[in-house]
Design goal:
Trehalose synthase, GH, Trehalose_synth
Length: about 750
C-alpha cells in the first residue's frame, strides 16, 4: 500500500473592498467565492477526487511530478555550466544537423514486430540517409498523448501534439529504443531531434488534477473557476462529454462579468458548432478538498489541448515544460528540440471592445528565451514553428530558438509553382531580408505532417493596410493575402484537383507531389499515370533546389522521398469527418521495403501510393529522385552554402525565373573576398532564357556550373550574364575569384601560343 496523498483544503478570504475603485464587474469576485457542495471520501473504486488512490495514481503519471524529479537530479551539477546559452546560434545548429528527415510516427510502415523507433534506429536506414546526405532525423511527437477519462486513456486528438506524459508511447517503442536510435544516429554522424509543446498539453493526469483543484496543478493552465451562482451562464455538458466549447455570446458574457479576457485575435481551427471560440467549460468536477467546481479554460487549438499559463504565480506550467525538455535531451539523448505552438505563450486583456492580445506578446518572447536558453545550456539546440509575422520571427529568434521554420516562403514557392510566376516568392524573400531574417536562420522544408499553410499572417494581420506592388498595381497586405489564397485554391483544389482538400481556414491538405500534379493539370488521382512521373519528379527536384541551394536547414519527409500522393478521402472518412482533412496527406509509407505486403501502418493509417519507389530501389538508380537529391545536397555541402549569407533577390527577365545570390562566408562579414554563389531556377514547364543581373556580381568574372564545372557565361560591365534553363531546371553557379581568373587567362594565353 502507498501512503495517501495529503489533501489540502483551500479557503479563500479575500475582501471585495480591496478593489473600491475597480468597476464591480471587473472585481475578481469570480476567484473568491466557492460552491457549498461537499462530498464524502469513501469509495476506493471511484475515479474521482473522493478516492485518494485515484489522485495518487494520477500524480504518478503527471508531467509536473516528473519535472520536479528531473530538476532535482540536474540541479547543482557541473554539466549545467559547460555550454553558452544566452544567444541563438543558427550556424552552430546547422553544423550539427544541416539536412533533416522529418518523420511521422503513425505513418511509417515497419517490419513485423518492430516499433517505429526501432525502425528509425535501423543501421540500413541510416546508411541510406548517409548516401542521400541526411544528417538528422526529426522523430515527430512520440510521447504519450491524448487524455485520461476515469481510469482509461483516450486517443490523441491532434496527431500526438496533445502530450500527457514524458513516457514514450508504447505504440511507438520504448525509452530504450529511443536511446538506441540516438546511438545509431551518432555512429552515422547524425542527430535526433525531438519535440516539446510549450503551448499546451492534452487532457491527461495534469489536467485532471487541475480540474480537482489539487496543489499547484491549476497553475499549469489558463483556467478560471466559475462560482456556482453563475453556472446558469454556462452551457450544459452532455453526459458523454467532459467539456463543451463556448459560443461567442457566452464568451462575451463571461468577459463582461470579469471571469475571462474574452475574444482573442483569431480562432485557430474555427469550425461552426465545434470550435467557435478559444474557450471551453468543464462539467462539474469534484475537487480534492470536497468542493465541486466548473472551470472555463483556454485552448488556442482543439478542445483537448488546454493552454499552458506561463505567468501563473506557481510557475507550474514553466516547470512542466522545462522538465519535459530536459527529459528528451538528458535522458533520451536527443540533440535538439522542436518548439511546437510556442508563439502563443502570452495572453493579456486589451482595451474594451477589442480582442485580447494573444499573438506576438512579449511574454512569448521571454518564455522562448527561457526554453531555448535551457536547451542550449545542456548542449542542444532548438527550432520553432512560429507562423506569425516576419517581425515576430526576427524578434523571437534574437533570444529564443536557434532556428525558425520557414513559414515565410513555403506558401510562396508553392504559389510560384502553381502559377508559373515567382513574383510573390520574390516579394517574400525580399521581405524576409529587409526585415532582418536571413535564410540561414530558417528551416526550409518540403512537406511535413501539416497542411500547406496559406494564412500569410505577416500580410493579413500586422501589415494588412500596407501597400505592396503586385501584378502591375498596388495592393494592401490584406488584399495580397486574399489574392494568393484565391490563386492556390483555384489552381490546387476543387475542379483543378479533387484530391487536394481545404483545411479549415489554415491551408490545403496535400503532398508535394500532389501540388505538382495539380499544377501540371492532373485533376484526379486516377489521372496520374506512370508516364507523368518524370515531369512530377523534375518539378519536385526544382523545389529541392530552391530549399537546399540557399543558406539554412533543408528538411524533407518520407512523403517527399517516396513521391507519395494523398489518400482518397474515402479511405480516411472517419478521421476527416470533423473537418481535419490533413489526414489525406498522411498516408502510410514503407521507406525500406520492410513489409511490401502491408496495406496500412501499425497505427492503422492506410498505405498511400508512391510514385518514386522505396529508398533501396531508388539508390540503385542514378536517375531516381533520391539519387538526384543526393547530388544536389553534395553540392550544397561542398560549397558550405548552408552557412552562407544571402545578398540579393534581383529582378528577373522572365516571370518564371528566380535568382538568389549568396556569399559563401560562413557568416563572417570580414571575408570580403568570399566566393559568390548564384542559384537560378525555372518554375515553369517550358524552356526559358533570361538575363541574371545583380549588384553583388563582379564584372568580368567567369561564371561556371558548380555541378558540371562548365562555363556558363561571363559577367559584363552591367553586372549581368545570360542563362538558358530547361523546364523545371536549376543552376548552382559560382564566379571565379581574381586569382582564378588570372590563372585562366594565363592558360588561355598559353593555349593561343601553342
Amino acid at each position: 500500500m502507498t501512503d495517501e496523498p495529503e489533501i489540502e483544503p483551500i479557503e479563500i478570504t479575500y475582501d471585495e473592498d480591496l478593489y473600491p475603485a475597480r468597476p464591480k464587474r471587473l472585481r475578481p469576485r469570480s476567484n473568491l467565492r466557492a460552491s457549498n457542495i461537499r462530498r464524502s471520501f469513501s469509495d476506493p473504486r471511484s475515479a474521482d477526487a473522493s478516492n485518494p488512490s485515484y489522485i495518487e495514481w494520477l500524480t504518478r503519471q503527471s508531467m509536473l511530478r516528473d519535472a520536479e524529479v528531473l530538476g532535482r537530479g540536474l540541479s547543482g551539477q557541473p554539466s549545467m555550466w559547460r555550454h553558452p546559452y544566452a544567444r541563438p546560434d543558427a550556424r552552430r545548429a546547422i553544423r550539427t544537423a544541416s539536412v533533416w528527415f522529418t518523420a511521422y510516427p503513425i505513418s511509417l510502415i515497419t517490419a513485423p514486430g518492430h516499433s517505429y523507433l526501432a525502425a528509425l534506429g535501423d543501421d540500413a536506414l541510416w546508411e541510406a540517409f548517409q548516401r542521400i546526405g541526411i544528417t538528422a532525423v526529426h522523430t515527430g511527437p512520440v510521447k504519450l498523448a491524448g487524455g485520461i477519462t476515469g481510469w482509461s486513456s483516450t486517443a490523441s486528438v491532434d496527431g500526438h501534439f496533445d502530450r500527457i506524459s514524458t513516457q514514450i508511447d508504447p505504440a511507438f517503442g520504448s525509452d530504450d529504443e529511443f536511446r538506441q536510435l540516438s546511438d545509431v544516429a551518432d555512429r552515422h554522424g547524425g542527430s535526433v531531434i525531438d519535440d516539446i509543446v510549450p503551448g499546451h498539453t492534452g487532457k491527461g493526469a495534469d489536467f485532471r488534477l487541475a480540474e480537482m483543484g489539487y496543489k499547484d496543478y491549476p497553475g499549469i493552465y489558463h483556467m478560471i473557476e466559475i462560482p456556482e451562482e453563475d453556472w446558469h451562464e454556462l452551457p450544459p455538458v452532455p453526459d458523454n462529454r467532459d467539456s463543451v466549447n463556448l459560443d461567442a455570446a457566452t464568451e462575451e458574457r463571461l468577459a463582461d462579468l470579469g471571469y475571462i479576457i474574452g475574444q482573442l485575435q483569431r480562432v485557430i481551427f474555427y469550425s461552426p458548432g465545434t470550435k467557435e471560440t478559444n474557450w471551453s467549460v468543464t462539467a462539474p468536477v469534484l475537487g480534492a478538498d470536497g468542493r465541486t467546481r466548473r472551470w472555463v479554460y483556454l485552448h488556442y487549438f482543439k478542445q483537448g489541448q488546454p493552454s499552458i499559463n506561463w505567468l501563473d504565480p506557481t510557475f507550474a506550467g514553466m516547470r512542466l515544460v522545462i522538465g519535459d525538455a530536459l527529459h528528451s535531451l538528458g535522458d533520451l539523448g536527443s540533440s535538439a528540440l522542436r518548439l511546437d505552438a510556442n508563439g502563443f505563450l502570452g495572453v493579456e486583456k486589451s482595451a474594451e471592445g477589442t480582442p485580447a492580445w494573444s499573438e506576438g506578446h512579449p511574454l512569448s518572447e521571454a518564455a522562448n528565451h527561457l526554453i531555448a536558453g535551457m536547451v542550449r545550456k545542456v548542449g542542444g539546440f532548438s527550432f520553432q514553428e512560429l507562423n506569425l509575422t516576419v517581425e515576430d520571427i526576427r524578434d523571437t529568434g534574437r533570444v529564443g530558438a536557434d532556428l525558425s521554420y520557414d513559414f515565410i516562403n513555403r506558401p510562396a514557392y508553392q504559389h510560384a509553382l502553381a502559377m508559373g510566376d515567382t513574383e510573390f516568392l520574390r516579394l517574400t524573400l525580399r521581405t524576409s531580408l529587409s526585415t532582418g531574417v536571413q535564410p540561414v536562420g530558417l528551416v526550409h522544408a518540403l512537406q511535413n505532417h501539416d497542411e500547406l499553410t496559406y494564412e500569410l499572417v505577416h500580410w493579413a494581420t500586422l501589415h494588412r493596410a500596407d501597400l505592396y506592388p503586385f501584378r502591375d498595381e498596388e495592393m494592401t497586405g490584406a488584399q495580397l493575402a486574399e489574392t494568393i489564397r484565391a490563386d492556390l485554391l483555384e489552381k490546387l483544389t476543387g475542379e483543378a484537383a479533387d484530391y487536394n482538400l481545404v483545411f479549415t481556414t489554415n491551408g490545403i491538405a496535400c503532398t508535394t507531389a500532389s501540388v505538382i500534379a495539380a499544377s501540371q493539370g492532373l485533376t484526379t488521382l486516377d489521372d496520374i499515370a506512370d508516364d507523368h512521373i518524370d515531369d512530377i519528379q523534375r518539378a519536385h527536384l526544382l523545389l529541392v533546389m530552391f530549399n537546399a541551394w540557399q543558406p539554412g536547414v533543408f528538411a524533407l519527409s518520407a512523403w517527399d522521398l517516396l513521391g507519395m500522393l494523398p489518400l482518397p478521402a474515402s479511405e480516411v472518412r472517419e478521421l476527416i469527418a470533423e473537418g481535419d482533412t490533413r489526414w489525406v496527406h498522411r498516408g502510410a509509407h514503407d521507406l525500406m521495403d520492410v513489409d511490401t505486403e502491408a496495406v496500412m501502418s501499425s497505427s492503422g493509417m492506410p498505405r498511400g501510393r508512391s510514385l518514386y519507389g522505396s529508398l533501396p530501389d531508388q539508390l540503385g538508380r542514378q536517375d531516381s529522385f533520391a539519387s538526384q537529391v543526393s547530388e544536389i545536397l553534395s553540392i550544397r555541402s561542398t560549397l558550405g552554402l548552408d552557412v552562407g549569407t544571402q545578398l540579393d533577390i534581383p529582378d528577373v527577365a522572365h516571370q518564371g525565373m528566380l535568382v538568389m545570390v549568396h556569399r559563401l562566408d560562413e557568416g563572417d562579414d570580414s571575408k570580403e573576398d568570399a566566393p559568390i554563389q548564384v542559384t537560378v531556377l525555372n518554375f515553369t514547364g517550358e524552356t526559358i532564357e533570361g538575363t541574371v543581373r545583380s549588384s553583388a556580381l563582379t564584372p568580368r568574372r567567369t561564371v561556371y556550373d558548380a555541378r558540371t564545372g562548365e562555363e556558363v557565361g561571363r559577367v559584363d560591365d552591367l553586372q549581368s550574364f545570360t542563362v538558358r534553363l530547361e523546364p523545371y531546371a536549376g543552376l548552382c553557379l559560382l564566379g571565379r575569384d581574381a586569382a582564378e581568373e588570372e590563372a585562366a587567362a594565363e592558360a588561355r594565353e598559353a593555349d593561343d601560343e601553342d
